[in-house]
Amino acid sequence: MPLTSKEVKDAARGFGADVVGIGSVNRWNSAPAERDPRMIMPRAKSVICVGFRVHRGDWRGVEEGTYYAGYTLTGFADINNHAAPMLQRRLASFIEDRGFETAAVLHDGAWLGQESGRAAKRPNGADKPKPDVFLNVRISAALCGVGEIGLSRVVLTPEFGPAQRLYLLVTEAELEPDPIITGICDGCGECIRRCPARALAREKSDDVIVPGVAEIRRAGLDVTKCSLAHCGALSPFAPEDVREYTLDIIGGTETHTASGAPRPTREEIAANVTDKIPYARNMREYFQSPPGLCAGEGCQRACLAHLEACGKLTRRFAHPFREK
Ligand code: SF4
Ligand code: SF4
Fold first, then answer.
1. Which of 163, 225, 240, 253 lies deepest, with the highest CB count within 10 Å?
2. How many C-beta neighbours within 10 Å does residue 249 have?
3. What is the pLDDT of residues 269-290, one digit of tens each?
4. CA 205 / ligand 1 centre spacing (Å)
């Protein structure tokens, strides 16, 4: 039974998606085996990206420095754990009812890692991935034409800028692809300037060139510094000793802290920081989610303010997100 892209998109929006885009699987021809949708489903023809907006109000309390739980719960964990799996399930059922096998790929945080896996039995040939094969959600979203990856490394859509969460499905259905989106990120650098962890570096660019499809220009990311901001080490909930320890790492390099000591490993940092911030620990326990206590101060919120001020987004509000 034929199935069109319009039918799939109408169904996705009917099930609650705020954004939806489709990419032909040949756009992943240059992906490593561990990121290739055909390693999950050998007869895959298309990848579908669906997304839910993050309400601007979910960030308001963090902007004010007064209310942090709302973003982690309703702008992050609830979408990851409830809204998205339900939408993916309903959309997969809709497509499978038309006769095309369809698999949901979960959000980035659900990737459990592949280091310990033994190489897969299939496909035949040299390039056998280790499980767990898992698509790069942001790059895949760009290849599905839902938005452009900005200098911030975040997907920017024409409707919501950086304010959505994105999820993927892989299907045997051959669907008309969407065009690749460009021209949203203007390179203003607000994401880098406003990152509280100094985790983004324009001079350490980390570009992804997909031959004949897309050129993704990204700033380099120090994941360790970013994770420190996310877990609340710079938030008002961090005790003073954690804050000092964190600033020493953030002021340093990838090998040394600002005071000249060798930089601790992520495991050592986690042991030193995580349980000393009860608010973050409570978030993990109550919301079943990593805490999102940075709430993208630079890479999402500053970018949103900038793109809105430039009139680039189709979602409009009566008042600006950030006053000058
Ligand atoms: S703030 Fe947004 S628009 Fe500006 S450089 Fe960063 S990603 Fe691009
Ligand atoms: S989440 Fe926060 S710390 Fe990480 S890159 Fe974005 S602004 Fe920087």
1. 163
2. 24
3. 888 887 899 999 999 999 988 8
4. 14
Shortest-distance ligand to the CA of residue 162? 1
CA-nearest residue, atom 3 of ligand 1: 185
Atom 4 (ligand 2): residue with closest C-alpha?
Answer: 226
To the question of pTM greater than 0.90 for the whole model, the response is: yes
Residue pointed to by tokens 């579908």 = 48
- 260 backbone φψ class: left, alpha, beta (φ>0; ψ -120 to 50): left
Residue written as token pair 């998205």:
84
pLDDT in tens, 9-49: 999 999 999 999 999 999 999 999 889 999 999 999 999 99
Q: Residue 198: left if φ>0, alpha if ψ -120 to 50, beta else—which one?
A: left
Element (H, E) at 8: helix 5-14
Amino acid found at 133: V
Residue nearest (by alpha carbon) to ligand 2 atom 8: 195
Cα of 200 from ligand 2 centre, angstroms: 8
- Ligand 2 site residues, Cβ closer than 6 angstroms: 195-197, 199-200, 226, 229-230, 294, 296-299
Probe residue for ligand 1, chosen from 148, 181, 306 as the CB with the greatest number of ligand atoms within 8 Å: 306
Higher pLDDT, 187 or 119: 187
Q: Given CA atoms 4, 101, 95, 9 in this order, what sign does their dihedral have?
A: negative
In the chain the domains, ranked by start, together with CATH numbers, are 5-113+124-184 (3.40.109)
Q: Are 217 and 207 in contact (CB under 8 A)?
A: yes
Residue reference for tokens 């993704």: 216
